Amino acid sequence: MVDSELKDEALKSLDLKREDLEKSLFETLVDQGREEELPAVQMLKEQYRMHPVIGELISQVFYDGKLKHATRLSDRNHMLSWLDSAVVWYSTTKLPNHGENPRGSSFSNPTEVSAILSHLYRMEQSYHEMGRGRNVAIITLYNEHIRLLRERVQPSDRARWMMLTIEIASVDAFQGRDSHIVIYSTVRSNKDRKIGFLKDRRRLNVALSRAQQLLIMVSDMGMLSNARMKSDEENPYLKLIQYMYENTEVCLTENLEQRDLHE
User: Which partner for 215 in 14, 63, 98, 211 could form a disulfide, CB atoms 3.0-4.6 Å apart?
Assistant: First the structure.
């Protein structure tokens, strides 16, 4: 992870280039394998984790439609009658006071935490009525936001969460893992339209592909769609937002209102 505030001049003094630091060891190995024409470099074209609707989003946004799905709708049913989709984006854009809170070099977003809490309580009630349990992972890129989530959600409180098993973690810590339900909280919301680590397309791919049954995004969609990027950078959220709006029959996008927040 390379801080967006790291100056090119500082890198030059160390005889380093930003693109060299941003390239992962995995990418280096793949590139070497391709150069040597090794058969070990293959794309896994069939996924067995995600609900087909989630899988198709990942396929179209990140893999040019090449990823296929070995899962069925019936195998990945979240069973929440009040949600008609397996992919949901709750936007905080129209809420007052939806901005980020900086602390040191990290950030939190109390409004996103309130929205997540409200939906967790609704899930808990629904699954309690069904007599069924679910695992829920809440993931983000910012440690200060993780601290605030843990403080307010209190995932280990079994008197509060009898049907939900909740884990709160960073996107990086959750790489290679999955959960029935994943809530991805992006945190960043500011007048300067800075998105920091969110610009990393690889981390966005990881965040959106951890869910088995239900993927929920909570963020300032308006700011993400207009994020300030450098001339040589691509906003990874544009293709995702476009896909959401072009596939409204399977993807739900909703502007949160004050009543959707847990005080």
Answer: 211
